[in-house]
Automatic annotation (TrEMBL):
The species this protein was found in: Caballeronia calidae
GO MF annotation, one: oxidoreductase activity
Protein name: Short-chain dehydrogenase/reductase SDR
Keyword Oxidoreductase: yes
Keywords, comma-separated and alphabetical: Oxidoreductase
Gene3D superfamilies, A to Z: NAD(P)-binding Rossmann-like Domain (3.40.50.720)
Family statement: Belongs to the short-chain dehydrogenases/reductases (SDR) family.
PANTHER family membership: DEHYDROGENASES, SHORT CHAIN (PTHR24321), ESTRADIOL 17-BETA-DEHYDROGENASE 8-RELATED (PTHR24321:SF8)
Cross-referenced InterPro entries: NAD(P)-bd_dom_sf, Sc_DH/Rdtase_CS, SDR_fam
Length: 245
C-alpha cells in the first residue's frame, strides 16, 4: 500500500491512461477523486473501484475549484494532483496550416487546464503539509514530431511550468514532476493509427513497441509515493525509447 492514506485528484480520468492511473492509485491504498468533462466519463474510471467520480471541466476555474472542494469535503485533504486531461486532434499541423482555433484548443486544454488545477489544487497540498503534482507532458515536448505544432507548444509549456512550480513550491514540501509518454495504446490512439501512415511511421520508431497505459500508471504511482521523495522538476519519459532516435 504505497499510497495508503493519501487523497488523489485525477483529471482526464475517463481516458485510457486516466482509468489505469485511478485504478493503480486505489490498488495502492489512495482515496481517489476521478474527474472528467462528463460524469459518465468519470464513472468509467471508477467501475469496480472505490474511486469517487466527479464532473470537472479543467478549462473552467469555477468547475476545478468546486471539484477540489468536493475532494476535501469527502476526504478531508488532497495530497496528489495528477493532471491527465488533454490530447491532440487530427486538426493539428504545421504552424502554417493549423487553425487558430486548434492552437487555442490545445493551449486551453493541455496547458491552461494544467495551470488551473495547480492554481486551485496547490493550496490544498500545502495545507496537507506537502504532496506530489504529476503533470502529463508528451514525447513531442522532448523530440520533434511532424504535424503537431499546436500540441507541441502546449506540452512544451507543461514541461516549463512543471520545472517552474518545482522550484516555487519546494519549500512547502511539494514535488512537481511530469510524465512524457510515447504513443500509448489507448482506444482513441489506436483509432488514429488505422490507415494513418505518418502515425504508423512514428509508432514504428518505438524500440519496445507502443506504450501500455499501465506503464504510465506505474510511473504515476512512483511519483505519487515516498519512493520519489527526492525527485522534483523532472520529466520522466515513458516512451519505449523513441526520444533517443
Amino acid at each position: 500500500m504505497r499510497l495508503n492514506g493519501r487523497v488523489a485528484f485525477v483529471t482526464g480520468a475517463g481516458g485510457g491512461i486516466g482509468q489505469q492511473i485511478c485504478r493503480r492509485f486505489v490498488a495502492e491504498g489512495a482515496s481517489v477523486l476521478a474527474a472528467d468533462l462528463t460524469l459518465d466519463a468519470a464513472q468509467s474510471a471508477t467501475n469496480g473501484t472505490a474511486a469517487l467520480p466527479v464532473q470537472c471541466d479543467v478549462t473552467a476555474a469555477s468547475s476545478v475549484s468546486a471539484a477540489l472542494e468536493r475532494a476535501v469535503c469527502e476526504y478531508g485533504r488532497v495530497d496528489i494532483l495528477c493532471n491527465v486531461a488533454g490530447g491532440s486532434t487530427a486538426a493539428d499541423g504545421p504552424v502554417t496550416d493549423a487553425s487558430d482555433d486548434e492552437f487555442w484548443r490545445a493551449i486551453r486544454l493541455d496547458l491552461y487546464g494544467t495551470f488551473t488545477v495547480c492554481k486551485y489544487g496547490l493550496p490544498h497540498l500545502i495545507r496537507a503539509g506537502g504532496g506530489s503534482v504529476i503533470n502529463m507532458a508528451s514525447m513531442v515536448a522532448l523530440t520533434p514530431v511532424l504535424g503537431k505544432d499546436c500540441y507541441t507548444a502546449a506540452k512544451g509549456g507543461v514541461v516549463a511550468l512543471t520545472r517552474s512550480m518545482a522550484l516555487e513550491f519546494a519549500s512547502h514540501r511539494v514535488r512537481v514532476n511530469a510524465i512524457a509518454p510515447g504513443i500509448t495504446r489507448t482506444p482513441r490512439i489506436e483509432g488514429f493509427l488505422v490507415g494513418n501512415e505518418s502515425m504508423q511511421r512514428i509508432a514504428d520508431r518505438h524500440l519496445l513497441g507502443l506504450v501500455d497505459p499501465m506503464d504510465i500508471a506505474h510511473m504515476a504511482v512512483y511519483l505519487a509515493s515516498d519512493e520519489s521523495r527526492s525527485v522534483t522538476g523532472q520529466v520522466m519519459a515513458v516512451d519505449s525509447g523513441i526520444t533517443m532516435r
